[in-house]
Amino acid sequence: MIITAAELIRTLPEGRLVPVDVRPEAVWREATIPGAISLNVYDYFIPESDEAGIAGMAAGARESFDRLGLGGDRIPVFFEEQTGMISPRGLWFYEFVGLKGGLVLDGGIQAWKAAGGGTASGIGLPEVIAQSNTGGFRFDRSLVASTQEVLNHADHDADVFDVRRKAEFEGTFLHPCCARPGRIPHSHFAFYEDMLKDGKYRPAAEIREIAEKAGLSPDREIITYCHRGARAATALYGLKLAGYDKVKIYVGSWHEWAGNAALPLEIGPAEEV
Fold first, then answer.
1. Backbone angles phi, psi at 21, to 5 degrees
2. Per-residue model confidence as pLDDT tens digits over 207-241
3. Is residue 150 a contact partner of residue 184, using CB atoms and an 8 Å limit?
4. Using an 8 Å Cβ cutoff, are 166 and 191 in contact?
5. Residue 273 pLDDT greater than 70, yes or no
């Protein structure tokens, strides 16, 4: 799930691990881990979190990984400046389409350089994950929640987990692209960055304490969401490190939910959930 910079420096010469730079293309071209390829996983927005939208997301992700030759004996190590909201999303896409063994470089390229790793200019063509209409791709449906599943989460013993900033959760801040402020009713809350410290994931025990304080139980299914599904991936892997195995992402997140006036919302301080 995660790899340290020291481990990557030691094992990269073996040839099986492929650094995948998920930072902006211009930054990759300037200086990256030698041999790293560029993949934009951040700018993706799912058109609609229904079965067709989820299948199209899987097709687009799988096509990107196939074009990059990732999978099998070529195991990706996703990294950004430090562990944040992008590299875990890359790993989530990889696992969502049924590929195994992917990793996040904990601490990102800053940890790599601090451990003595060198840099080089990014070379080659960048890749981007986008929606696709191609059918027939397999994917792990257990890692993603539809809008309908979020709406009816109480019917299948699931908890909804909002990992945005408190101002977003309470509805006092609104992204310009979102139609309404607020949160999904009955959401649990903790800010995703609280699972990180100094650009790396906190120890599992500390993350578990954060989750328990938010009212989450490893015995129940958890659906994470944020603004667009990126921070939600960081929280998903934090929870998994802490022993929470039944976690999925509502990729449409608040951007999609807010855009549907028929869906309910809450504004203000958190209720007891």
1. -85, 115
2. 999 999 999 999 999 999 999 999 999 999 999 99
3. yes
4. yes
5. no
Tell me which residue of 142, 147, 143, 117 sits closest to 52, measured CA to CA. Answer: 147
What distance lies between CA 4 and its chain's CA centroid?
19
Q: What is the pLDDT of residue 33?
A: 98
For the chain, domains (ranges, CATH) are 2-128 (3.40.250.10), 145-258 (3.40.250.10)
Which residues face 39 on adjacent strands? 127
Identify the residue whose tokens are 């139609």. 179
User: Inter-axis angle of helices 87-96 and 231-241, to 10 degrees?
Assistant: 80
Q: How many residues does the chain have?
A: 273
Q: What average pLDDT does range 67-96 have in this prediction?
A: 98
Q: What is the pLDDT of residue 26?
A: 98
DSSP string, the chain: -EE-HHHHHHHGGGS-EEEEE-S-HHHHHHSBSTT-EEEE-SS---S-SSHHHHHHHHHHHHHHHHHTT-BTTBEEEEE-SSSSSSHHHHHHHHHHTT----EEETTHHHHHHHTT---B---S--EE------------GGGB--HHHHHTGGGGTEEEEE-S-HHHHHTS---TT-SS-SB-TT-EE--GGGGEETTEEPPHHHHHHHHHHTT--TTSEEEEE-SSSSHHHHHHHHHHHTT---EEE-TTHHHHHHT-TTS--B-SSPPP-
Structure tokens at 25: 């293309």
Cross-strand pairs, 189: 162
